[in-house]
Design brief:
There is one protein chain. By secondary structure, the protein is mainly alpha-helical. It contains two helices and two strands, in the order E-H-E-H. It has a two-stranded antiparallel sheet with strand order 1-2. The protein is elongated, with a radius of gyration of 15 Å. The N and C termini lie far apart (41 Å).
Length: 69
């Protein structure tokens, strides 16, 4: 699987996720010098289980609401 390039810095690979913006994945350059400076970021590998858990919680809540309707 090919790693995606950063939308802002085409020569950099996306390897981080910004929890402050909940946006597309970003590159190190975005964190150091870009708009994500001083934001809460984690590597994609570390962010994945956190994001998955949040999605599961939302999904469970939606399933409960659908059952109630």
């Amino acid at each position: 699987m090919e790693r995606p390039s950063c939308a802002e810095h085409a020569d950099e690979y996306c390897s981080y996720f910004c929890f402050s913006c909940v946006s597309d994945c970003i590159c190190p350059e975005c964190i150091i010098h870009g708009v994500h400076k001083d934001h809460e970021v984690k590597t994609v590998k570390k962010a994945y289980p956190i994001i998955k858990e949040k999605i599961d919680e939302i999904n469970n809540g939606l399933e409960t609401k659908v059952k109630n309707v």
